[in-house]
Amino acid sequence: YLFNKDIFITVICFTIVIYIIFACCNTVILFKKITIMKNIITLTLISLLIIISGSLKAQDKIIKKNKEVIECKVTKVGVKIIEYTQPQFSSDVSFSIPVDRVERIEFEAGNVINLAEQYSGTRSYNDSKKNMFKIDLIAPFTGNFTFAYERSIKANRSIEASLGIIGMGFNTGDDNPTGAFLRVGHKFIIRKEAYNNAYHYTNILNGFFIRPDLNLSYFSATTYHYSYNPVTGQDLSSYVRGDYFSAALMLNIGKQYVFDDAVALSWWVGFGYGFSNSDNNYMNYFYSHTLTGDNDFPLAISGGLTFGFLY
Asked: For the whole model, what pTM was predicted?
């Protein structure tokens, strides 16, 4: 229990003064009047004790995960924070602490809220693994090998970069492509999938996401160029080795499933605007994306399916 120090000192001083007055009066007044004064003093002391007891404030206890104890008066237990006041400050001054830092709350009445048990199946942002290494499961069947790295930068944001080695795959055909592409994006994870109550995240990289990114692709490949001379009737078609470059700004949507904070499976599709140095009649697939439509407004599309490891 805590009490107001100023009130306590005032009561002591007042009691001493009363007894001094009583001692002085003891020599000049009658015994009967002294008895009356004693009764008055007794009633006064009882009243002051009631005032003191009214100033006493029972304490609640917030036990943090690091075993630190905060003795206070809990005023609100919210989804994300716990609010409380402390007796050494005015009641208008309110303090707060994130729920994920608290193990339990012990109330003055004896009730206990065990937050550690309530959220035992979830992790806080600081406890979660923030890095992931991925490989694209579809890429080898489209003539390349793609791996990616994702890093969480805050609770619902991450940065992802992919590097594709063009020519490392099962379906390169007669093109014999060699080159690489780079994809860099900023992922926004939709919050209702990313977290549970009170900053407790099912996993910080889990959930639906929107990811704008930039794709850059450069490679060499052999393509078949068809041409015909109507005058001579001669077929002038030939295989030509050329260098191809393309860039695209994409907006991707997808979902990432994280299992046991260890592995993840993710799918995504994207649409955007791109350009290249190629006539689309000869080359429109650039491994990081595909260009469709005409050269005035080439629409870019992309997609992927990845498997990742968290660490």
From this structure: 0.58
